[in-house]
Design brief:
three-stranded antiparallel sheet; single chain; alpha+beta; 313 residues; globular; 26% helix
């Protein structure tokens, strides 16, 4: 939560600067819709329908110059990740102590953890959690392990990769970072996530193994004092006390509950007051990430409410 008050930018579409227009004289984006600019990006911004990943930045073949796996049949140029991190760390901060959810905070946190532990974050996750939890189908870059077809497609990406995204991370910045990033890229199943949620629900213990101290779980799942009506904990989202019936939460959840939602339509929500957790995995971004019906219909909240009601005595 404190990371989201540090003044970091929310995000940046780094990928736009690595595209090229196929029709000379046109930009990649425009503030108005037209025959050439017909792909809606939100906020009255439209993308050139005839643009593609630049051959300077990308190749169809993996090589020493293009080692970064961005999508199936698309490899990024060496140095791309360093350039992104350099821009993140050298962008002036905005106003501090003003809440703004930031992807950049988790990207930087990954770098800190990896430097301290001297291991990549995917290896640390396997060593400390996944193997002993028995979460065999959780991890980054499932395409590497022959699990691409086992993954639901997240989007047919008209903006960047110009292909169906399946078994590769949906988030563009995470893709440019090679699929292993602090803010995105982790794939899982409902069964594996249930083990993780049960571990948190039991105060950091699962199958007689301790992963976290109970005090750590409590700290990261409560709303810190001194931030007014803030409703985000150190490690998780929290119910908004001013708006109990949000687009993705049922009003039946307790104020002790916590969890996280994903851009592609996922949610893991844990309620220790009722000894209950909910896992919903959707691909609401398929075939198009402009599809927001999951929020308009309050689909996740409706499913959650039905499950809560089913266990009430």
């Amino acid at each position: 939560m404190l990371l989201h008050r540090a003044g970091l930018k929310a995000w940046k579409p780094f990928y736009i600067n690595t595209l090229e227009a196929l029709k000379p004289g046109l930009n990649i984006t425009s503030r108005g819709i037209s025959e050439d600019y017909s792909i809606a990006m939100g906020g009255k911004v439209y993308m050139n329908r005839l643009c593609s990943p630049s051959p300077y930045y990308y190749s169809e073949e993996c090589s020493e110059l293009y080692p970064v796996p961005v999508a199936r049949g698309l490899w990024g140029r060496v140095g791309m990740q360093d350039s992104m991190l350099h821009e993140i760390t050298h962008t002036p901060l905005g106003k501090k102590n003003v809440y703004l959810y930031s992807d950049w905070s988790f990207i930087l946190l990954q770098q800190i953890v990896e430097r301290v532990e001297k291991q990549p974050i995917d290896q640390l996750l396997n060593a400390y959690y996944l193997r002993s939890l028995g979460a065999w189908r959780t991890g980054f870059t499932p395409w590497k392990y022959g699990l691409r077809e086992a993954c639901a497609p997240s989007e047919f990406d008209l903006f960047f990769r110009k292909s169906e995204v399946r078994g590769y991370v949906h988030d563009m910045a995470a893709a440019m970072l090679g699929g292993v990033a602090g803010h995105a890229g982790l794939f899982s199943t409902a069964d594996d996530l249930a083990k993780y949620a049960a571990m948190l629900l039991r105060g950091g213990e699962y199958a007689k193994l301790r992963y976290l101290l109970p005090s750590t779980v409590t700290l990261f799942s409560q709303t810190p004092d001194g931030f007014g009506n803030n409703y985000r904990g150190y490690g998780f989202d929290k119910p908004n006390p001013q708006k109990r019936n949000s687009s993705y939460l049922s009003g039946l959840v307790s104020m002790k509950s916590y969890g996280h939602i994903g851009f592609t339509g996922t949610i893991v929500w844990i309620d220790p007051a009722q000894d209950f957790f909910v896992i919903i995995l959707t691909n609401r971004t398929y075939p198009d990430s402009n599809n927001m019906r999951i929020n308009g219909m309050r689909l996740r909240a409706t499913i959650m409410e039905a499950l809560y009601l089913s266990i009430k005595p």
